[in-house]
Amino acid sequence: MLVVEGSASETLAKNVSEELGCGFVQVEKKQFPDGELYVRLTKDVEGEEVAVIQSTCYPPNQNYMELFLLLDAVKDLGAEKVSAVIPYLAYARQDERFEPGEAISLKTVAKLIESSGADEVYMIDLHAHRIEKAPEVFGIPAHNLTAASVLAKYVNEEYDLENPVVLGPDGEAEKWAKRAGEAIGADWDFMVKKRLGSKEVEITPRELDVSERDVMIIDDIISTGGTMTEAIQILKDHGAEDIYAVCTHPVLSDNALENIEAAGAKEVIATDTIGSEVSKVSVAPVIAEAL
Ligand code: R5P
Fold first, then answer.
1. Where is the Phosphoribosyltransferase domain (predicted)?
2. Residues 129 and 81 placed together within one structural domain of the fold
3. Which of 14, 43, 107, 193 is catalytic?
4. Cα separation of 177 and 226, whole Å?
5. Residue 30: which CATH number?
6. Domain assignment of residue 277, yes or no
7. Domain shared by 45 and 165, yes or no
8. pLDDT digit string (tens) for 45-56?
């Protein structure tokens, strides 16, 4: 197998190739004055199984275009099998037509990934809540991996949690809380969230007692930080000890980090599906195992 680096996931791609002990293909990339992209693979891929690793984080349109160029080049240069590994899949939130006339963006990007040459696709903690299984939108085998276990193990070991509780900040995060709680043998539950606007949410706890316990709040994405901030404030009011704000994808728009820290989080921890100052856990082992 060969691993090809996209520019949004260069270090991650290198780490995956090291985990697998396989070849790594550097890509020469440049941008023309008019904004067009150029890519050139620096190794022969003919007859090989190839994984192209490229997150579609900010700037999503440019990162998607680079992904399409890489997939098409790899296929066209005679690779035997092409896997698209897209740790953060942008456009996943528009997974339905909410208003008449809207594009269903997730379906559009799925078609483009397939038609660019991918035989298979891997994503991590896909943010498409209304879709039960990733393959529903792809015409090729699609795998939705999760970083919940590696995140939970890292936090538990690194911070030596006391009588921990793992909580999802809303019902949609139940699956990550369950996975994370089970990975470290901790109690887990989820909170109830009502969205009041694009940045405002109202969160209420359920049954589990958090008083004097360390809490790990786990979610797929921290975007504006509104969800985490509200959850932390509620948990503080309920007497929680140290609170860790944990997510797979650190989108971190606006002042998300500052707000979460100001709300009282002891630490914010995320993965390297998107590079950031809180990307302390690598998903390289998760991807390598799946590949
Ligand atoms: C929502 O359904 C997601 O799982 C996250 O809770 C949400 O995207 C986080 O967004 P924000 O940080 O802007 O509250």
1. 151-250
2. yes
3. 193
4. 18
5. 3.40.50.2020
6. no
7. no
8. 999 999 999 999
Q: Within a domain: residue 278? A: no
Q: Which of 175, 200, 227, 278 to mutate to test the pocket of ligand 1 (most atoms within 8 A of CB)?
A: 227
Residues 102 and 227 in one domain: no
State the pLDDT at residue 219. Answer: 97
Average pLDDT, stretch 159-172? 92
Q: Is it the case that residue 100 has pLDDT exceeding 80? A: yes
Helix-helix angle 226-237:256-263, to 10 degrees? 0
Question: Does residue 20 share a domain with residue 121?
Answer: yes
Q: Is residue 35 part of a domain?
A: yes
User: What is the β-pairing status of strands 27-31 and 187-190?
Assistant: unpaired
Residue 204 pLDDT level (bands cut at 50, 70, 90)? low
The mean pLDDT value for 169-186 works out to 94
Has 35 been labeled as part of a binding site? yes
Domain count, the chain: 2
195 is in an annotated binding site: yes
Distances (CA, A) of 78 to 23, 50, 74: 16, 10, 7
Pocket of ligand 1, candidates 221, 248, 254: which has the most ligand atoms within 8 Å of its Cβ, to mutate?
221
* Residue range(s) defining the domain that contains residue 216: 148-272
Under a CB-based contact definition with an 8 Å cutoff, are residues 206 and 192 in contact?
Answer: yes
Q: Is residue 233 part of a domain?
A: yes
Q: Among the atoms of ligand 1, which is closest to the Cα of residue 222? A: 12
Pocket residues for ligand 1 (CB within 6 Å)? 169-170, 172-173, 219-227
Please tell me the residue having the least CA distance from ligand 1 atom 7.
221
